[in-house]
Amino acid sequence: MNISNLIESSDAPARSVRGKVRLRGLTKSYQIGGRTLPVLVGIDLDIAAGEFVSIVGRSGCGKSTLLRLISGLDRDHAGDMWLDDVPIIGTSLDCGMVFQDSSLFPWMTLRSNIAFALQGRADLSDVEKTRRVTDAIDLVRLTEFGDAWPRQLSGGMAQRGAIARALVNEPELLLLDEPFGALDALTRTYLQRELQHIWLRQRSTMILVTHDVEEAVFLSDRIVVMDAAPGRIHRIVPVPLSHPRDPADPAVQRIKETILTDLVGD
């Protein structure tokens, strides 16, 4: 089923009722050479359950740091964060994360890499774990490559495998830190469409950090534009366009140019 049919189909899942994110006064600093270097200051942000939000900004504005804080990987901060009204105080199975590098273990097949994310899930039977792994592989359209080794996968296929691994625990929130940044333009375009397909199927809340403004406009419900030194929210830009979107659409281009003007001037 293509994306157009998925959107029009009555079988398309409704927007999730879980995965709501709330940030209040989030502030992060580093101690460097005996002085305090502020990285993020006073971040207030609300993200609805099932929403797709992208974060854009110049290098050094704290985009990836913000994602690490939301994931619970970095707990040294001021301010408060909640996922579904539960304070974020560390990592959780309710939150998955995908990095720029797929980080698949080279000594494991794709199937074993994805199953690794379910280790320690005593609440799941072996049958349920097998089902989840199979469903995750099917979702990223790698059905025929479950027994392939990472060296046998292209960069784009490996990154789809990383997305499957992040989704196998069925998280309410998926964080993506430049997941397509190391890929060639053609593969990147293909995976943007694949990510859109996955989001429309899963309806998990997704937060994407990207340097590619067109990618952000193509995928997002809203775009958070960051200022740097220290990182602050400059403004939040809504993208009131239906899916699927055509990057050549004048409406897409107008939003893109507006954001680029914010980032680099006229």
Question: Could you characterize the architecture of this molecule?
Answer:
The chain is globular and about 50 Å long. The N terminus is likely disordered. It is α/β, with parallel strands linked by helices. It has 2 domains: 179 residues, P-loop containing nucleotide triphosphate hydrolases (Rossmann fold), CATH 3.40.50; 65 residues, no CATH class. α3 packs parallel to α5, α4 packs across α5 and α7 crosses α8.
Write the layout of secondary structure elements.
Blueprint: H1 3-8, E1 21-32, E2 35-47, E3 52-56, H2 63-71, E4 78-83, E5 86-87, E6 95-98, H3 110-116, H4 126-139, H5 155-167, E7 173-177, H6 185-202, E8 205-209, H7 213-219, E9 222-227, E10 232-238, H8 250-264
Helix pairs in contact: 3-5, 4-5, 7-8
Low-confidence stretches: 1-11
Largest sheet at a glance?
Answer: 6 strands, mixed
What's the number of helices? 8
Please name the CATH topology of the largest domain: Rossmann fold
Output the radius of gyration: 18 Å
Percent strand: 15-25%
Helix content: 25-40%
Q: How would you classify the quaternary structure? A: single chain
- End-to-end separation: 41 Å
Number of distinct beta strands: 10
Going across the biggest sheet, name each strand in turn: 6-7-8-3-9-10
Overall CATH class of the largest domain:
Alpha Beta
- Named at the architecture level, the CATH assignment of the largest domain is 3-Layer(aba) Sandwich
Estimate the global geometry from the Cα principal axes: globular
Domain ABC transporter: 21-255
InterPro entries: AAA+_ATPase, ABC_transporter-like_ATP-bd, ABC_transporter_ATP-bind, P-loop_NTPase
Keywords: ATP-binding, Nucleotide-binding, Transport
Protein name: ABC transporter ATP-binding protein
